[in-house]
Design goal:
Helix content is 84%, strand content 0%. With 129 residues, the chain is mostly helical.
């Protein structure tokens, strides 16, 4: 360990981190090229060739020219996934009863004596607002 100082270890870790982040960015750009439906086949091929043959310059040019729309597509995809998840939760939870059904249930509870008139009125008010 004496022949490899601590500062060299930090530099090696920094360069490894930068290298991994570079590949992450490269994969993100290539994924975005295929995700963008506004590009036709030739434009996708041109961007892909540019990004793969001149990786550093190609990625930076792509980010300069298409970075904003890249972010918009990412936000759109996240919203679509969130909406799909919400629909799944609604479907899995089952249909919720209408306010009329809920009032009927409350009335039945009041008639049985399980809840008082005050509790019935509060729950009724909550349902109607």
């Amino acid at each position: 360990m004496d022949d490899y100082p601590l500062l060299n270890l930090f530099w090696t870790m920094l360069w490894l981190f930068v290298w991994v982040m570079w590949f992450f960015l490269l994969f993100k750009v290539v994924t975005d090229i295929f995700r963008d439906h506004s590009l036709n086949g030739w434009e996708r091929a041109a961007w892909l060739v540019l990004v793969l043959l001149l990786p550093y310059i190609g990625v930076f040019i792509y980010l300069i020219f298409r970075g904003r729309s890249m972010g918009e597509r990412e936000v759109k995809q996240v919203k679509e996934q969130e909406e799909a998840f919400q629909q799944y939760v609604r479907k899995a939870a089952g249909p919720s009863g209408s306010p009329v059904d809920e009032l009927h249930k409350l009335s039945a509870l009041k008639d049985k004596g399980d809840i008082s008139q005050e509790e019935f009125d509060r729950a009724k008010q909550k349902l109607l607002t």
